[in-house]
Amino acid sequence: MRRTAIALAASAAAVSLAACGVMDGVGGGSSSASPKKGDDITVGLLLPEKENPRYDKFDYPIIRDQVRSLTHDKGKVVYENADADAAKQSEQLDQMIADKVDVLLVDPVDAKSLKAGVTKANEAGIPVIAYDRLAQGPIDAYISFDNQLVGQVQGRALVEALGSKAETSKVVMMNGSVTDPNAAQFKEGALSELQGKVNIVKTYDTKDWKPENAKANMVQAIQAVGLSNIAGVYSANDDVAGAVIEAMKEAGISKVPPVTGQDASLAAVQRIVSGEQYMSVYKSYPEEANNAAEMAVAKVQGRSIEFDALTRDKVDGPTGQKIPSMLVPVVALTKDNIKDTVIQDDIYTVGDICTPKYKAACTLIGLK
Description:
The chain is of the alpha/beta class. The protein has helices at residues 2-19, 54-70, 86-98, 115-123, 147-162, 181-194, 211-225, 238-250, 266-274, 285-300, 304-310, 339-343, 350-353, 359-364; strands at 42-47, 76-81, 103-106, 128-131, 141-145, 170-175, 199-205, 230-235, 280-283, 313-317, 320-328, 330-333.
């Protein structure tokens, strides 16, 4: 988390400079040297889906509370969730433009289809910050996790789990949705660790990230490869991992082979505790959401130095180069570091994880 500490220290320094009236300098995008607005601001927040509970449980309330804190309870967040419907999200974006929000945080369902809306926001003078997924169009900044690193962490963990038999092991790849730009980065990162080290026999994309689609794909893989021949599964996230494991169990597997994941969902953490899922990737949603709120407030208030301190990374996308960005670090989550990650960050309590069904498994790994 060294990178995070540096970013937060830089942010604190920027706030200190602001307090002293030292706000000169050139910011990213359309920010100016003097504040555009005071604390009475409206942040429009567009999140992509409800299948993953993180958006309603963590992202929205954290961003809402941080905006309130940064604006002395005068700022507000207007929130909409597209429920995995790209057309619906476009309508939500158009409405926020019509309502003249001051800044937009956008996590696109379909980055390409939202490009026209992002362009319209830009033309209306509303800054757009891509949140978690890189939107297309004239965005002012981007905050997410290091997505290629996510894939690398997953791929490396799978190779390590397969050990000396990795090179001859048959592995199935269950990637994410082709409409999600992050999925391509996860896949690229994973392949950099898997190619030449394992035998990838089947590869699938999971339409809309839906578990039922992942399960159908896994059923096909089992029929084509043979259940006993599958030595491991690269799964792009925890919902997909759950579907993959369910398909293998229904097919009669006696011991589930190593399966990767991402997001550290509660169900996945419990599967890791019980040994059904090998690992997940923990991404600190509080860290991402808090910094996104800081970026949005700094941008709309014209705090160039603070904004620049929060966006020291640069990312290239299909419609923009060297986009000011913050890439938040990630951690491989296994049964060995549950205490140091999701419990330490107050994502879950031991009680949440160690329900009666998992109590014995929790005891075995010292989780109590």
